[in-house]
Amino acid sequence: MTDVRTTDVGIEFLERLLERSERNPDRSRPASAAPEYDRLSTAQQVSRFHDLMIAAERFGAVDVQWGKRDRGHLIERVRVRDPELLARQLGRPTAPATAQRVRQVLLPVAEAGEPWVASLLDEMTARWERGEAAYRLTAGQADAAKEFFTLLASISRQEARGLDARSFSHQATNDTKAFDRHASRLAAVLGVQIGQPGAAADVIWTHIGLERFSHPVHLRGPVAVEGAGGHLVDGRAKPFASIHPEMLLQLSVLERPTAILTIENYTSFNRQVREIEDDSLVVYTGGFPAAGVIELLAKVLATVPADVPFLHWGDVDGGGVRIFRYLEENLPRGPQPHLMTKELAEKSGQPADADPSLASIARSRSAIRELAEWLAYASDVRHLEQEALDPAPPARGVP
């Protein structure tokens, strides 16, 4: 009668050898290991283990090294001779074969998205070929991986914008809970993709335009939402008005604003609309602007003359620079920085470490590239939270 527990010890031993071999296929020496005889408590178990090793050696999968003299009856070491034969001996395909098979299944899904999605599949395939998990998915989880890449491809096509998570999930996969199952790995991948590895999930979701429920846009200035009975919302209300994104079809610009100013921080927005009396349009972005903010700004910028100044006021740090760049990349025309200068940061900011991840913005044609370069490479970097400054009229820029 075969001892199942003993058989498992021998098979587990060979499985570990194969995993070591697959994990480092370019190793100069074959993967090897010494048997753990303390797990074999009876002569029958030892004999069965030896039989499994001898059978694997005869099959050409491993080389068995026996002990010398008084240890000649014990196996000293087992080395992998041929990983493919060892996989066959164990009754499974090799990790590279499994990885390539899964890749062929996933490739059409990945190629339906932007090129970076297919590049991610190549990266994950390379890890699967070594028998590793990639973003906590193994090659044996093909269905889950297909769902993951379906969501990523859809996100890369901008199909998450303006939707809550459940609606987007159903639209992309026909399963309302698919997004929740993959949320943490989606955030990890997308954080790297947008240049903010490790960013909080809500920052990532805002960046891709995903909203649990769309938030009203806070603003003050010469705009209004018109209804059959007149003004439903007047943007000139004190201290400010709030317009829900669903009202944007009814939005109109009442008169030419002196400037358009977007503000990252809520405290600074409140101070601006309460302390500065002018005819500018001031819009609160709430950190990374949600889809409704972008939609409103795009409509206003398309309506007002091109010579109306457009400015953005945010923190002088990595996050503030990325928000500025996000506005540039997602609007018909980009803003100019307002109260976001190296000089103000040197005067009122706090010492901070350089942030090399801003290098791509520093190399771009962004209106904030010089500030990004200083924050990315300088030895005397300082960060400035916008709340440390008093508000100023957009036309003046610096108090």
TrEMBL record:
Domain named DUF3322: residues: 18-190
A family per Pfam: JetD_C
Domain of life of the native organism: Bacteria
Domain (Wadjet protein JetD C-terminal): residue spans on this chain: 242-389
Compositionally biased intervals (Basic and acidic residues): 20-29
Region described as Disordered: spans on this chain: 20-39
Signal peptide residues on this chain, from the entry's feature table: none
Name this protein carries in UniProt: Wadjet protein JetD C-terminal domain-containing protein
